Amino acid sequence: MGRCAAETMRENDFIEWLREAAGGELDAGLVPVGPGDDCAVVLVGGERLCVSVDQLIDGVHVEAARDGAEAFGRKAMARALSDVAAMAAAPLAAVASLALPRGFSRDDAEAIHRGRRAVSDAFGCPVVGGDVAATDGPLACSVTVLGRPDGIEPVLRAGARVGDAICATGAFGGAWLTARHLQFAPRIAEARAIASRAALHAMIDASDGLAMDLSRVCRASGVGAEVDAAAVPVAPDAAAGRAIDPLAAALGDGEDYELLFTVAPEACEALLADPPCAVAITRIGRIVAGAGLTLVGAGGRREPLAPTGWEHGT
Amino acid sequence: MGRCAAETMRENDFIEWLREAAGGELDAGLVPVGPGDDCAVVLVGGERLCVSVDQLIDGVHVEAARDGAEAFGRKAMARALSDVAAMAAAPLAAVASLALPRGFSRDDAEAIHRGRRAVSDAFGCPVVGGDVAATDGPLACSVTVLGRPDGIEPVLRAGARVGDAICATGAFGGAWLTARHLQFAPRIAEARAIASRAALHAMIDASDGLAMDLSRVCRASGVGAEVDAAAVPVAPDAAAGRAIDPLAAALGDGEDYELLFTVAPEACEALLADPPCAVAITRIGRIVAGAGLTLVGAGGRREPLAPTGWEHGT
Fold first, then answer.
1. How far apart are CA A192 and CA A185, in angstroms?
2. Distance, CA of B64 to CA of A223 (rounded, Å)
3. Do A130 and B26 lie within an 8 Å CB cutoff?
4. A47-68, pLDDT tens digit by residue?
5. Using H for helix, E for strand and C for coil, what is the string for B153-189?
6. Does B40 sit within 8 Å of A95, measured CB to CB?
């Protein structure tokens, strides 16, 4: 998330270490995709199962006192589903653990359930089990979602190729400061519609910021990316009252839960000419050889795009 | 857990409500077992998949400052595996979310991983994905384990029949006050050895206390139970320095992570005559018609056994 980039960077380091530490633990025959993608992929009964876990912590990912318990439950479920969307998988079922602060009201606990349930129902992902415990800390919920490829090859982060077009769904910026980070719809149907029409090379859901999440695709794929400043779909309320360049907000804020994907240029043209979903698809740049992100501005001016969000240059 | 019975009872109420609220959400064809058992069972690729989530919170289920980060990681994984043991399933893979207090040291984060990994390796359950976030609250970890029946019918809580023998593995009491709640081995191999030799009718892992967990089997099965006081396997250090009847500790303490199962009396005799595992199996009572638990003492004296632990009568 944009508002705690320093923490996120520290987490990224530890996650990177965890990923390396998992080396040797996994049997590639049973676990075709291990830690480091939006979902892991595990073989069950000859079928590939996508598995992802995501946690929502009050005060970090939501402000429950301001936003309400129902919004908390809603977002906990929607965030987890967004990871399944990023693989173009179909949700199957979920389990959830819930840590309730001591003295938490039963009404609020039921409201969390209602919010969660509304999203589960809308996206066909029943919660089949869970765990509830009391905590001295903040309200927290961890949701594990199982998904099935169901005829569509899981799209990984690692497949971006030099020359690919980079595309995004929807618009970016300001989500945390508006209600959008609470109300977003995980792009399950859109991901499946797009992936069933075009051979996607790589995909991720943009939860930590367009630039940061695109940099993850690049690192996993061993490539770099150029982003066309004028092409980035900036949400109308991206600045959200801040004295900030809306483009910087779009690149760095996070919490958008839109899809970022890469695809061969011709396939991109076909998608743009005949969109497979109602949500807008925008071509925002291209995959290039090398590493890191470059922002291409007016007149072809190029500047490095930091994966923690972009500060407008001179 | 024994040490916070009031919280546990309140959680039980909410969990019961959640279970009822899930009614109508689940397609029994896709989800043969929903919320309320040790694992849910979901159909994937024609195979049944057992899924369970369990969370470990510092200050509730462990005291990380005293017990160490490695013990925290160890217990987080072992607790989750214990739920898979309770179905007699074989672990397949896990995902974990980890909430790290701000300022948590990298060394301690790596120690959590080492403890988790030692258990994952010992029980063949690799962690294939995860989520790490910073929290203002206590250290917390939520582990979701996937398991496969692998030739053994999943054993539910709901199958206990009047006349069944009630059996337990290992010994009970004082686990929280000793190191046993940190060092226990989830009874995966034992559950599978027992279930492959005898048709178990019901099973649960005793994490919240022998009496409470047995009462859950009874409630799920619509039966009652009689427990023979003299037969309960009491751990040598069950009192753990407290002025408490060791039997009361064995019945009420919790954190034992032993198996409780019910089986036809003849099958029980066969198990006891030729034990399928090195861990002791003890017959502790019988399933009866009705509801609730009865403790049968010296001379056949009978008294109600409260599911929150037993206070010795006059």
1. 14
2. 41
3. no
4. 999 999 999 999 999 999 999 9
5. CCCCCCCCCCCCEEEEECCECCHHHCCHHHHCCCCHH
6. yes
